[in-house]
Amino acid sequence: MTSVPMSRDNAFDFLRLLAALMVLIHHSVIHLDAEFLWHSQTAGPWFHGGVSLFFILSGYLVVRSAERCHDDGRPWWEFYRNRALRIIPAIYVYGLVSVIVLLGLGVISLGWFVTAESWAFILSYLVLAPVFNPGALNDFGIGVINGSLWTIPVEVSFYMVMPLIVIMARRSGWKAASGALVLISVAAVAVYGLTEGPAAEPLLLKLFGVTFLPFLWFFAIGIIWSRLWHRVVHSGWIALTCVVAYFIVINIPHDVGEGGSAILTALAAVPLSYAALWFGHNPPAFFISLPRMIGDLSFGTYVWHMFVVNLLVYLGAAFWPVNGTVLVCGVVVVSMVLAALSWWFVEKPALRLKHYSMAGGSLKHEKKSQRQADRSAGRMDRVDRRS
Fold it and tell me: What is the C-alpha to C-alpha distance for residues 378 and 149, in angstroms, rounded to an integer?
């Protein structure tokens, strides 16, 4: 059984952008020591759910792409090609531009490129695991230039196993596959959650933390919803109740350590997922049209925002006589401008090279059909004006 076809009139591009903005606001408040509206470093985790939301949506949408590849009889390398076109160009350009800016600021010099740590840094980008932080950058910003990009190897490793999940589901059934996903993800959350903290220093555990396994729970929620969404009651009141439930769980005062917080975040993801999917399928028209007008800025905003925050920390923005909300809004604007440049000049041109889309069929055929529809609409419009 395949996923039920999804209408193109959805708000999932907007929801991904919202997730990126939640992460941006959370990081800006922490690292710039700024208050944003009612939110501060001590005001509770109001904007902590961005990564959870992004992983849930990724599971929900990427499984459809993998199933489409399988059902069309395409080789799996085409699925990987589509995923690579979505991530690699933006990451590589970000890495190149950020290094050029660091050279211009004098943070690093040309001589640095003959050192082993510089090549380790470059290699981390090339293999889509930009989590290595060289000592030469310890004095720039917060001292960790790509702190938020740990999610890239998590996503990439998830993409790598997605075909295996689809093949397993087609052979053993989606019920069995879903049960296996839940069992594995619960075990991974427990292992990672209960070992996370100051004592969690072993390299093996750190490497485990940048794979999909500790976060499989969120991906699995999205995958399971792709099978069940058309079978459950769709209600705005239920979605609103789920939003309230999410914030109650995530903001409950607790003293359970970082591991316990990770487990609570996993539990809170369940009501969050229903609310997100309901809104994604039932949005006001504005949230459908906005990403179409400005572009899909979610990935670029996420990738660029910490470089912007680091630059502001480096320039001493935390001590500027600027209102915290204004400062955070400045991070939003600059990050989204950089994201727009990334989308229009890097990401969108790369995505035109895809051979198939999640909705099915050849992209070339879809584009031809769209052009024909546009021409037909234009002819009808001219007839109406003459009438």
Answer: 45
- Is the Cα dihedral 180, 185, 190, 196 positive or negative? positive
Question: pLDDT digit string (tens) for 235-278?
Answer: 999 999 999 999 988 877 655 555 567 788 899 999 999 999 99
Classify 1 as helix, strand or coil.
Answer: coil
Query: What span, in angstroms and rounded, lies between the C-alpha atoms of 176 and 1?
Result: 13
Verdict on whether the full-model pTM lies above 0.85:
yes
Whether 246 and 49 have beta carbons less than 8 Å apart is answered as yes
Report pLDDT digits (tens) over 120-138. 999 999 999 999 999 999 9
Note whether 120 and 134 are within 8 A (CB). yes
Between CA 149 and CA 100 the distance in angstroms is: 19
Residue 189 has pLDDT above 60, yes or no: yes
Each domain of the chain, given as residue ranges in start order, spans 12-356
Residue 38 contacts residue 331 (beta carbons within 8 Å): no
CA distance 114 to 341: 31
CA distance 228 to 361: 24
Q: Which two tokens stand for residue 303?
A: 């990738």
Are 39 and 29 within 8 A, CB to CB?
yes
What is d(CA 347, CA 302) in angstroms, rounded to the nearest whole number? 14
CB 55 within 8 A of CB 63: no
Residue with tokens 């959650």: 193
Chain-centre distance for alpha carbon 309: 18
The rounded distance, in Å, linking the Cα atoms of 29 and 39 is 8
